[in-house]
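Hi F.,

I've been meaning to write this up properly since the lab meeting, where we talked about keeping a consistent format for the predictions we share between groups. The idea is simple: the sequence comes first, exactly as it goes in, then the C-alpha cells exactly as they come out, then a line or two of notes. No screenshots and no reformatting. I'm using this chain as the first example so we have something concrete to point to.
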Amino acid sequence: MKKIKPIALSGFVLGAFAIGGVSLVAITHATVDTRIADNQYQAMKGKLETILPAGHSDNDPLRDSIVVNAQELLGTDITQVYRVRKGKEPVALVLEPVVPDGYAGPIKLLVSVMRDGSLGGVRILSHHETPGLGDKIEEQKSDWVYTFEGKSLSNPTLEKWGVKRDGGEFDQFTGATITPRAIVNTVKNTLIYVQRQGDALFAPKVADTPTPVEQERG
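Output, unedited:
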C-alpha cells in the first residue's frame, strides 16, 4: 500500500478541520436563532396576555394569524392580525397598527378588540419619542395607555375620540400633544377597521394559497 504523501495528509486534516468548524458555526448559529425566536415569541405572548381577559381563550393567537392591507386606517401596508378563540368561537382580535405621524417617527401599537367592539387594551411595541415627554405613552412611564381599556366607538362617541385640547375625552401630555393625538386617532381607526370587517377576519386560512389580505379604502 502506497504511503500517503505528507502534503496530501495535511490537506486532508485541514479540510476536515474546516468542515468541522463550519458545521459547528452553523449549529451554533441555528441554536442562537432558535433561542432568539423563542424569546421573541414568549415576549409577545406575555404582551397579548396583558390586553386579553384571562381564561377567555383556548387557542394560541400567535399561531392563528393573518396579515391584512388597510394602510389608510392601520397606518402600514401590512398589518399582523392575531385571532383569539375559545371552542372555535371568535373572542377577540389583536392587531399591530402603526401610528405614522408620531412626533419623532412611527409608533407601533398592539391593540386588542373584543368581539363586542370594545378595547381589551393598548400597548406600545416600539417608538422613538422624546424621553420625559412623548415617552409617557409607555406603561412603565405613566398609566396613560390604560385609559383605552373598555373604550369603543360608542364610548366615547366618535366625535369625542380625540385629546382634550381638541375637544375629545383623552388626556394629552404637558408639552407633548402630537404623540397622544396621533395614537388616539390610530386606535380609533383600528376600531373602525374591525367594525367594518367583522367576523370575516376570523375566516379559516386556506391551505396552499397566499395569506388573506383584506383591502380597505378609507
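Notes:
The first helix runs from residue 6 to 50.
The mean pLDDT is 85.

If this format works for you, I'll send the rest the same way.

G.
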